[in-house]
Amino acid sequence: MREVIARIKVQLRRPSEASPVLRAGPLELDRTRCQVRLHGNEVPLTATEFRLLEYLMGRAGIVFSREQLLDSVWGNDRAVTDRTVDVYVLRLRQKLESEPANPQLIRSVRGFGYSFNETLTRSIPAQTARPKIITIQRHHQIDIVFLTLFLDAQDRLKTNTSA
Fold first, then answer.
1. Taking the domains of the chain in order of start, what are their residue ranges?
2. What pTM does this model have?
């Protein structure tokens, strides 16, 4: 039973099957077209800005250190400093925020790193959520209904505590 719980926890840490389009309020990121739209208007981003925004939006609410972002977005073969993340976050804020000095999308968590505002990405009501399928072994899948209830309750708890 401990192994099953450990495997479930690993699956919960991984992002779920990625939707081709991520939405957060007026912001829309289309993964298949590599386009970002704000209020319906296309926002030109560099490839690195796009990857950084996609990484943060796809994991809204999770705080990432500069080092984690460098490893995930820039990769292991990089010749940049951790302050590079600050520069790219600033550029994204200048392009996406109405008030870059008072950011609503990408928030800074002092002493820790950066996080995408999860309250803007909550657009699917809990009633329409489908049970998640978790792979326990290579060819065996189980559909855990109680896990869905747990995930829905966890989402509601996060929403209530952030409000």
1. 21-120, 129-163
2. 0.64
Integer Cα distance of 51 and 118 in angstroms: 18
The 3-state DSSP class for residue 145 equals: helix
| pLDDT tens, per residue, the chain with 163 residues | 777 777 776 666 655 555 789 999 899 999 999 999 999 999 999 999 999 999 999 999 999 999 999 989 998 767 788 889 999 999 999 999 989 889 999 999 999 999 999 887 744 333 334 444 444 443 444 444 445 545 655 666 665 555 5
Closest CA to 74 of 61, 59, 87, 90: 87
Classified as helix, coil or strand, 126 is helix
Q: CATH number for the 21-120 domain, one of 1.10.10.10, 1.20.120.450, 3.40.190.10, 2.70.40.10?
A: 1.10.10.10
